[in-house]
């Protein structure tokens, strides 16, 4: 089983303040991992460090074979192409349809062939149970439907790692449960998924490896 993320004695800073320190973490292929902790405990900082939004202040960090301490700016897009990100606030482009939102990402990441683009969009929408919604505008969708589109967007480039930052934060419990189920299924199919959440009910309902950010440390539960 390959290692996707490996951190050794990593320290992270946000605005010159230590967010997390002495982080030791190994995440393997196809794992489903919860990242828990209060708001402001460092969950987002840890995730952002994995796609080079926040630099590693000290220690050793490897993500998808990239040395994050020596990562060149020109290599960041290639790293990010292998990572799917699911945001709490959806971040869909409100002026275009679901299909055009997804096509925009594929065009931006180098897809050229129209048939390949159409097939890939069809595949990811089917995976998240949204095949019949491609013509809809984001505002015509419920929160749960929008989040499924966000997951479809995250899957487009067949990432090795999906980072979901509070993906159920804006959803009711029933819809949030469906989203966690969907992410669990993605992990079961072989993609590593890390979910940041402060909703411990989901952790209890769908048990998995759980890491907690507490007092600037990452503790395995």
Percentage of residues assigned to helices: 25-40%
- Give the averaged pLDDT, no decimals: 93
Specify the structural class.
Answer: alpha/beta
Query: First CA to last CA: what distance?
Result: 22 Å
Cα gyration radius (Å): 17 Å
Sheet with the most strands, sense and barrel status: 6 strands, mixed
For the largest sheet, list the strands in their spatial order: 6-7-8-3-9-10
- The backbone outline, from C-alpha atoms, is globular
Low-confidence stretches: none
Total strands: 10
Instruction: Give the count of helical stretches.
Output: 7
Helix and strand succession?
EEEHEEHEHHHEHEHEE
How much beta, percentage-wise?
25-35%
Q: What's a concise summary of this model?
A:
By secondary structure, the chain is of the alpha/beta class. Helix content is 33%, strand content 29%.
Description:
This protein has 221 residues and is of the alpha/beta class. It is built from seven helices and ten strands. The protein has helices spanning 43-50, 76-81, 98-108, 114-127, 143-155, 173-188, 200-205, and strands spanning 3-14, 17-28, 32-36, 56-63, 66-67, 83-86, 161-165, 192-196, 209-214, 217-220. Strands 6-7-8-3-9-10 form a six-stranded mixed β-sheet, with helices on both faces. Strands 2-1-4-5 form a four-stranded antiparallel β-sheet, covered by helices on one side. Strand 9 and strand 10 form a beta hairpin. The longest helix is centred in the last third of the chain and has 16 residues, at 173-188. The chain is globular, with a radius of gyration of 17 Å. The model has no long low-confidence stretch (mean pLDDT 93).
């Amino acid at each position: 089983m390959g290692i996707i993320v490996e951190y050794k004695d990593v320290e992270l800073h946000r605005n010159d303040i230590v967010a997390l320190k002495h982080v030791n973490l190994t995440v393997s292929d196809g794992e489903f991992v919860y990242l828990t902790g209060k708001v402001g405990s460092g969950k987002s900082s840890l995730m952002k460090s994995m796609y080079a939004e926040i630099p590693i202040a000290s220690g050793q960090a490897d993500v998808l074979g990239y040395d994050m301490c020596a990562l060149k700016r020109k290599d960041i897009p290639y790293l990010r192409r292998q990572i799917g990100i699911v945001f709490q606030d959806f971040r869909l482009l409100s002026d275009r349809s679901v299909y055009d939102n997804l096509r925009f990402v594929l065009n931006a990441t180098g897809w050229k062939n129209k048939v390949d683009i159409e097939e890939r969009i069809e595949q990811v929408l089917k995976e998240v149970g949204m095949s019949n919604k491609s013509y809809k505008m984001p505002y015509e969708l419920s929160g749960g439907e929008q989040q499924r589109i966000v997951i479809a967007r995250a899957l487009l480039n067949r990432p090795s790692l999906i980072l979901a930052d509070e993906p159920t934060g804006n959803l009711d419990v029933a819809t949030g449960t469906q989203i966690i189920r969907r992410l669990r299924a993605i992990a079961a199919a072989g993609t590593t998924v890390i979910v940041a959440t402060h909703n411990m009910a989901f952790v209890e309902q769908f048990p998995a490896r759980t890491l907690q950010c507490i007092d600037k440390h990452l503790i395995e539960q």
